[in-house]
Amino acid sequence: NRKNWEVMDILNKINSEETTILLVTHDAKVAAKADKVIYLEDGTIRKICRLAKHKDSCIIVNVSLQNVMI
Q1: How distant, in Å, are the alpha carbons of 53, 61, 63 from that of 16?
Q2: Burial track 28-46 (b if 16+ CB lie within 10 A, e otherwise)
Q3: Distance CA 10, CA 6 (A)
Q4: 25 near 41, Cβ under 8 Å?
Q5: Using CA atoms, how far apart are residues 54 and 70, in angstroms rounded to an integer?
Q6: Rounded to an integer, what distance in angstroms lies between the CA atom of residue 64 and that of residue 44?
């Protein structure tokens, strides 16, 4: 929807000013706008992909978030 893309444009502008943005979504089209996508499944990081400005590449990982301090 149009509002989603307006919000994404704002976030991209903020990000271009060297501010890191963390966005949580189930929408693959929205995720495809990111530089990096981290796929979670049942609290575990399953895959980390670099997109957009970088050549597409993915690293398959198995890291439980139970071991990560935030």
Answers
A1: 12, 28, 29
A2: eebbebbeebeeeeeeebe
A3: 6
A4: no
A5: 27
A6: 4
Return the residue matching tokens 């670099």.
50
Distance (Å, whole) CA 17 – CA 22: 15
The kind and range of the H/E element at 5 are helix 2-16
Are 33 and 8 a contacting pair, CB within 8 Å? yes
Tens of pLDDT, residue by residue over 6-47, are 888 899 899 889 898 888 888 888 887 788 888 888 888 888
The two structure tokens encoding residue 19: 């501010």
